[in-house]
Amino acid sequence: MKIATILGTRPEIIKMAPIIDEINKNGIEQIIIHTGQHYDKEMSDNFFRDLEIQTPDYNIHVGSGTHGRQTGRMMEGIEEILLKEKPDIVLVQGDTNAVLAGALVCGKLHIAVGHVEAGLRSFDMTMPEEINRKVADICSTMYFIPTENSAINLLSEGFSRKNLIITGNTVVDACFRHLEIAKKRGFEEESLKNLDMENMENILTLTMHRAENVDFKERVAEIIAALKELTDMNVIFPIHPRTKNMLEKFGLFDDLKNLEHIHIVKPIGYLDFLLLISKSTLILTDSGGLQEEAITLNVPALTLRYNTERPETVTAGGNILVGSDKKVILENANKILNDKDFAEKMKNAVNPYGQGDAAKKTVLAIKNYYDEGVLNITAPEEIMTSFTRKMTQINEDITVNEFELNENALIHMVFDGDKMRFPLDELNLNGMIIIYDKYDDN
Length: 442
Ligand code: UD1
Ligand code: UDP
What we know:
Elements (H helix, E strand, L loop, with lengths): L1 E6 L2 H16 L3 E6 L10 H6 L7 E2 L7 H19 L3 E5 L3 H13 L2 E5 L11 H12 L2 E4 L2 H9 L7 E3 L3 H16 L4 H5 L8 E5 L3 H4 L2 H13 L4 E5 L2 H10 L2 H5 L4 E4 L4 H9 L3 E4 L2 H9 L4 E3 L7 H6 L2 E3 L4 H13 L1 H8 L10 H14 L18 E4 L6 H8 L1 E7 L4 E2 L11 E6 L4
The structure holds uridine-diphosphate-N-acetylglucosamine (UD1) and uridine-5'-diphosphate.
């Protein structure tokens, strides 16, 4: 078996690293394709170093540009490589342009796609990431889904339950493994050593880069206005290149840099960054990955967005959506900083993203699918003339697994009278309504 991984940005390198590592451990042949979307050392090379994974076999060097140009160039490059390498499955991760490009190319070449971190939805079609993840899901063969909640998103869009695999999120694998290494090593980035981070207290880690925030002057200005008032905190701001460019364009960069309690530094490596957030009292961010890492490392997070595709962090109580509204940001930040019980509750929120074994589950599932021949994409032999799903109410104690064995069926959806549930094998269906397929009908 041969697995190809496509990645291109900082979070993809971080979240694919545990899977790349696991593929190596299983002795499976693999190639890594870098799209080149992130190219600064601080946004790319340093992560291969810190996460101890091999450098990519290919780099398409797409660089920066408009969505069309970037995605188009990626597609051309990916197609050429895949035609030559002929992998059995291609893995894409998350919601960047690489995911869109990779999934589209594979769909047309009849190569199986495994979408890592599938099923997330912000329900906000103005976000490029929402378009990317939805299109990628349509073209995918295997879905590695972080939570039951995200699996339900896919079920409600009509996806078959067959290839949905709940794995947790590989960010937890990366976090657990690398925080230990980082703690033993201590801070190494010059910028952080100069700030004497080991002895610093009252740390607020800030990151932002979302187009819907940093591309709009009023929104960034409002966030900065809130930061200006948090003078009791040491704000550490590893600035994303997009954000730096935009702040300079808006004439806001120097204004922020000159504030004594705000420390703007270059994007920092993963080990230093994990240490930084683990020492933080509060995280202020619009990053997807950081919302997950915050709850994994028990640090309260305020998310500078009005929606999130990580609603589990909010319902668990570890994350609050504050948008870019100065008043709301300050109200919530001050509550966390001054109300110990409130802060404790946020810290103790239960991590919904698993135990750190997502990569193991992912690679095991790929091996099984390969052995069963599911990765061979062929046209269906029997064309179904109509949609055959059935619906019924269950009035006995019977688990999903038992029902499926007895009836030779596959349950897609379960309603418990209140909400949709994912048909986990051991779920007792008594009193629930199910939608299912009988295998003999197809
Ligand atoms: C991309 C992803 C976003 C992800 C983020 C992670 C898409 C549509 N967006 O956004 O989902 O959350 O990565 O960080 O795929 N730049 C540099 N050096 C670099 C890379 C970028 O200076 O190494 C600058 C360029 O001016 C570029 C801008 O940052 O125009 C934006 O980069 P781009 O890759 O287009 O999007 P991100 O904002 O990084
Ligand atoms: N990160 C890092 N150094 C930094 C900022 C972020 O290592 O200076 C890591 C962070 O731990 C997280 C990931 O980068 O795992 C998040 O990337 P980003 O916010 O760029 O993208 P998103 O997750 O929003 O797609």
